[in-house]
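Duplicate of #3305? Posting structure anyway:
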């Protein structure tokens, strides 16, 4: 975490973060408050373990007691769900893991039935002690002085020894009623982290977690009252955490039983007898039954590589340059088909070739899209930027534009280890896939427009679902690569979360037989070796540290350049250097045409444009609503009985320059 960015107060900014040091306003940098101390004892909510431990790197000893945020009762179940614990540990770097194993870092949490909302930070060295207490957790949002009002009181022992003593005793009191969050089996492991816990590992871990909660002495009355809040009717924004919480509650139900003296935890031997129930829970058997037949390709944070479910390495380097050249030739020939067998101008064919390569590139990068999103947020210190890297790729175009051919080619290049849907897929299944930890992409042919554009509150499709998935998926997850027709249209809040590519030309059906033979020859002897090498190279680059830019596919472009350089091949003209913005271009062209052909429906009045929707769209309500989806929300000033647009914004959007005579008429009319 770049703490230099955590400026507390600066000119022309609202003072969100208010720090009082020894009864005086502190106007320095938060980092300055930590300097000179070698031990940190903290009670705080932690949204990102990595961010917390990056912030506390300089301390030789750390005790972290995990708290929860307001109205976040589901977090109180994290301590009995192996998935939550491994997620926490997998967010840590190797040095932090080693610090935990060396007992220099300790992490604790409240037992079931208890929650901790305190925010206490105690710093000390051989000569000095410091207390920080207030409303702020030690999180990026709380300390970035950005839109969240927080207050922190800071006292040094020499200034106020009594308050230091009071909170030291308070910390020890809370600490004594907490449980060690790090399982003993993890501390004693030779690996940096156990990222591929088997069903047997998870059952052993559940036994340990049940025993810890049992030993802390939770009363039967408290156990009886433990419930998971019912979120079914609430916002989908909490649905991902809710899924975890439901698993935790099921685990809780399995490891406890009712007796005449109330609810108690089961002993280890009785938990062992319920092995099959835990296997179903931890392997998400229900999700598998819904059709997820992909190979288990998951990320291992210990080395940054991808592994199969049997723990063998999937990422694998190609040693023979001739083999790399073979695959490059195949890709070039496939893309060349969109010039040889299509109808259109040379410019349109060239634009299509660029988009075919972008689709291939996105698919190859997609198993690490989740990590690029995470790195981007950490680099820029803004959670809002997570949505700037989309987890959906849409390949749009009318019939016979070769969209399905792209999916078929990718299917072979990636080794048939994932789904390609040739019929309508259930949105519920897509949601389950996105929430899984497997990272292989999902290919869907002809996804329904309503999947992205529905405005209903259904938790597995529509605008809110897409925004939720892109904004809130933070752990490892797959991406969706789908095709759709060129009538696709969604609101601006959704489209910025999708990478949209529109095919420009159609295949010449008179050349169908020749084209099919050409395609069959390309894919006939392909396999997934090239894809596995690409993932190996990408993992290597990410492990060495990588700065993510606005062009989130830049790392993939760099790898392909390496391929061309190593094999002595010329970089093709269709090799694109930056991300595309086809949806904006499409939107601009739609409204530019409407304005040019139906100008009498647009009345300019001062700084506004009044759109007569009947003159522009007739009685076609669908066409009107669909066209509005192509307008940036910032341009629309009112959309009720009439549609009113911001004049300057609209003209800038359609790249229209008012003529002098038009400006004069407007001034005269005004």
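Output from current build:
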């Amino acid at each position: 975490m770049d703490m230099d960015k955590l400026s507390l107060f600066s000119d022309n900014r609202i003072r969100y973060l208010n720090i009082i040091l020894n009864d005086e306003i502190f106007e320095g940098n938060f980092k300055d408050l930590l300097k000179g101390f070698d031990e940190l004892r903290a009670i705080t909510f932690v949204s990102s373990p990595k961010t917390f431990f990056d912030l506390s790197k300089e301390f030789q000893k750390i005790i972290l007691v995990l708290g929860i945020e307001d109205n976040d009762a589901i977090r109180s179940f994290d301590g009995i769900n192996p998935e939550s614990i491994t997620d926490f540990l997998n967010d840590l770097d190797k040095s932090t893991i080693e610090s935990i194993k060396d007992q220099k870092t300790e992490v604790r949490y409240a037992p079931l039935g208890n929650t901790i909302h305190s925010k206490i930070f105690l710093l000390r060295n051989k000569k000095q002690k410091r207390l920080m207490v207030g409303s702020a957790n030690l999180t990026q949002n709380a300390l970035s002085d950005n839109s969240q009002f927080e207050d922190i009181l800071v006292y040094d022992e020499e200034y106020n020894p009594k308050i230091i003593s009071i909170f030291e005793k308070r910390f020890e009191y809370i600490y004594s009623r907490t449980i060690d969050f790090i399982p003993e089996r993890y501390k004693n492991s030779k690996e940096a982290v156990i990222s591929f816990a088997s069903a047997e590992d998870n059952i052993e871990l559940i036994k340990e977690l049940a025993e810890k909660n049992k030993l802390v002495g939770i009363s039967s009355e408290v156990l009886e009252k433990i419930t998971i809040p019912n979120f079914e009717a609430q916002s989908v924004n909490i649905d991902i955490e809710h899924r975890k919480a439901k698993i935790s509650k099921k685990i809780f139900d399995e490891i406890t039983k009712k007796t005449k003296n109330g609810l108690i935890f089961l002993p280890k031997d009785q938990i062992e007898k319920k092995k099959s129930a835990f296997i179903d829970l931890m392997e998400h058997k229900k999700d598998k039954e819904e059709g997820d037949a992909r190979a288990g390709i998951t990320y291992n944070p210990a080395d940054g590589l991808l592994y199969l479910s049997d723990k063998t390495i999937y990422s694998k380097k190609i040693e023979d340059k001739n083999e790399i050249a073979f695959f490059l030739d195949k890709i070039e020939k496939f893309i060349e088909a969109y010039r040889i067998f299509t109808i259109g101008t040379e410019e349109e064919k060239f634009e299509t070739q660029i988009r075919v390569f972008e689709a291939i590139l996105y698919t190859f990068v997609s198993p690490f899209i989740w990590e690029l999103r995470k790195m981007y947020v950490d680099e820029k210190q803004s959670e809002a930027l997570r949505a700037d890297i989309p987890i959906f790729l849409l390949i749009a175009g009318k019939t016979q534009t070769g969209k399905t051919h792209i999916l078929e080619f990718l299917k072979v290049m990636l080794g048939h280890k994932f789904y390609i849907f040739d019929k309508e897929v259930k949105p519920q299944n897509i949601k389950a896939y996105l929430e899984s930890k497997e990272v292989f992409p999902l290919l869907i042919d002809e996804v329904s427009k309503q999947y992205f554009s529905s405005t209903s509150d259904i938790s597995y499709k529509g605008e809110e679902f897409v925004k939720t998935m892109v904004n809130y998926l933070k752990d490892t997850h797959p991406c969706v690569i789908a095709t759709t027709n060129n009538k696709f249209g969604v609101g601006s809040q959704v489209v910025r979360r999708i990478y949209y590519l529109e095919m420009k030309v159609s295949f010449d059906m008179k050349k169908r037989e020749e084209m099919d033979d050409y395609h069959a020859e390309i894919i006939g002897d392909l396999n997934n070796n090239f894809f596995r090498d690409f993932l190996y190279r990408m993992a290597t680059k990410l492990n060495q540290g990588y700065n993510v830019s606005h062009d989130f596919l830049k790392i993939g472009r760099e790898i392909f350049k390496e391929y061309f350089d190593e094999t002595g091949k010329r970089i093709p003209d269709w090799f694109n250097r930056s991300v595309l913005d086809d949806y904006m271009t499409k939107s601009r062209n739609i409204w530019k045409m409407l304005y040019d052909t139906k100008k009498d429906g647009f009345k300019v009045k001062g700084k506004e444009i009044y759109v007569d929707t009947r003159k522009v769209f007739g009685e076609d309500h669908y066409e009107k609503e669909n066209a509005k989806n192509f307008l940036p929300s910032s341009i629309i000033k009112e959309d009720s009985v009439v549609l009113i647009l911001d004049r300057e914004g609209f003209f800038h959007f359609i790249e229209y320059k008012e003529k002098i005579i038009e400006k004069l008429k407007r001034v005269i009319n005004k």
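Confirmed duplicate; merging threads. Residues 237 and 472 are 7 Å apart (CA to CA). The longest strand covers residues 150-156.
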